[in-house]
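Before relying on records like the one below, remember that each one covers exactly one chain. Contacts with other chains, cofactors or solvent are not represented anywhere in the record.
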Amino acid sequence: MNKQILKMVPDSAGRSRWRGVALWALMGGLLVTAGCSSRQLNQPAPVEDRTRAGAEIKPLPGAENAGKPGYYTVRPGDTLYRIALEAGQAPRDVQAWNNLSNPNLIEVGQVLRVAPQIGTTGASGSAAVTTAPVTTPGVVARPLNPPAAGATTPLPGTGASPAAPVPAPAPEPSAGADEVSFVWPAQGTVVSGFDESKNKGVSIAGKVGDPVLAAADGRVVYAGAGLRGYGNLIILKHNNTYLTAYAHNQALLVREDQTVKQGQRIAEMGSSDSDRVKLHFEVRRQGKPVDPLAHLPKR
C-alpha cells in the first residue's frame, strides 16, 4: 500500500506530507488510548449518566417520585454514601429502601427514597413509628370524686344537666426530647472551624494514633472509606435527629451495626485522604450540618 501511494505522489513534498499525516494519526491514537487509561485510574463517583449523547433513553428508576418529600434526585458526582449522609440516614437503609443490590450503581436523574416509609424498619434497625389513640368501647367517663361542698345539682325535670368534667390537657412533647449531650471526640486543638459551605465540621489536630472517641451513645451506621474526601470514616447515629461523623482516621476500631457508648474509643487519628494528621468531626441534625462547637462543652 505504501509503495502504491509513493508512486502516485512521487515528489519528496508529497511523501513528507503523507508521512506527517501517518505520524499525526498514530499520535492521535496514542493520545486517545492514554486518555482512556487516565479515566480508568481516576474514575468519578460511581454514577452512570444516561443522558449523555448517543445513549438510549430509558425511564429512570423512581422518576415518578421526583420532587416529593423524602426523595432525592441523583446528581453528577453523587455516591450513595454521600446522599445518605446528607439525608441523615444510614447508607444501608437507603440501599434497602431502594432495593439496590449494588450501592455503587446509581444513575444521574435516578430518584432515591431517603426517608423511611411510615411503619417500616431500615436495615440498621431504625424505624418510623406511628401512634394511634387507644379506645375502649362501652366505657363511660364518670368523675371519681363526689361533688364538692356547695356545688349545685340540677333539679329533676328541669332539663338541665351538670357540666361535663373538663379533661386536663395532654402534656406537650418536650422540645428537646431528641437533644444529645456530646463530649469532645479528641483532645487536640481546633485548627479549622465550621463553615456550612466550605467546611461542614471542625478539624481537631493531633498525632498519628491518638484516640478518637464516640461523642455520645449510638450505633455505627457506616465504617469504611467509600466517601471521597473523608478517608477512613465512621458515622454514628444517636437517634432520629442526630448523626456524628469522624473522618481521616488511620484505623477503625468498630464495625457497622455495633452499639457504642459515649467516650468509647472508636478509631485512631490519622491523615487518610487529608494533607495532615487531624480528626474531621461533624454533627448533623436531620442531615443538615450544624456547628459542632455549639453542641460540645466549652473548654
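The two ends are 82 Å apart (CA to CA).
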